[in-house]
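Hello forum,

I keep getting stuck at the same step: I have a sequence, I want structure tokens, and every attempt I make locally crashes halfway through. Rather than fight my setup again tonight, could one of you with a working pipeline run this one for me? It's a single chain of 319 residues.
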Amino acid sequence: MSIAAVKSGRPRRADRKLDSLDVTVLAGGPGAERRVSIQSGQAVEAALRRLGHRVELLDIGPDELSALDRPADVVFIALHGEFGEDGTVQAILEDRGIPYTGSRGPSSRLAMDKLAAKRRFEERGIPTPKYEFVDHRSIAGLESRFPVPAVVKPISSGSSVDTTIARTAGRLREAAADLVNRYGAALVEQYIRGPELTVGILGDEALPVCEIRTEREFYDYQAKYVDDATQYLFDLELPGEVLERVRRLALAAHQSLGCRVFSRVDCMLDGTTLAPYFLEVNTIPGFTSHSLVPKAAARRGISFDQLCQRILELSLSDS
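Reply #2:
Ran it on my machine without issues. Output:
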């Protein structure tokens, strides 16, 4: 059956040959993570071409949707942050009846909203650091209510953009006021002292736990995408039951938000008690040379190309 022969512009699921698809890779976008998104998109494009798919890498934005006019069996979303990871482009694709990779729109919106996600974690018994929502009405007296050190971050953002560790009351007040003035609100979170861990999710499996070590104050944008000194460790000197609990709870966090196909779940491990505290779920994690889900998949014996193929297959099986 030809692509033109069906109303949606794509063959029915049963007619698709999963080893030879027309794939549009969306990358770039309008957000602060645009440069990284393009790198992710280029890596995915190259992998899918090596696998024999017909692929085109296209930019997209709220006012430029022509990329979606290209007939495709599936859209591989490599857009990080605003527009791509917040459910917006997913809603557009669903409205057009176009299959796409990753989590659905509602789950994407929920995961992107750190405040709503943490509330869902609490409802499901998934440990998360203590926190406070701050806006123009509630910022007064913050430094007397919330102990330092504390983490101050935007409600909806990725790649640790505009995140600060405030170690004094004055810095807490200053950082929170800055975000409230710029974004209208901020999330203030308890600082957990200990290893920073991340767990990739693929299908219904939690991939091996990875510890992130950086010479910077924390795993910020520079450490994520620029600094080659950042270490990603899988041979961890932690009790097996601790690692298993982290994996089990990471999968529960992914599922609690209704996510599908793949994600990356970030948590902090208390260095004294070894108790994990879950921070967030990233529904479109990176696909760059520094990115963590590809590293975890490789540890599991899944190559980068196989990971991209698996994401396509899982997404189409649920489309």
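The longest helix spans residues 34-50. If your local run keeps crashing, start a new thread with the error log.
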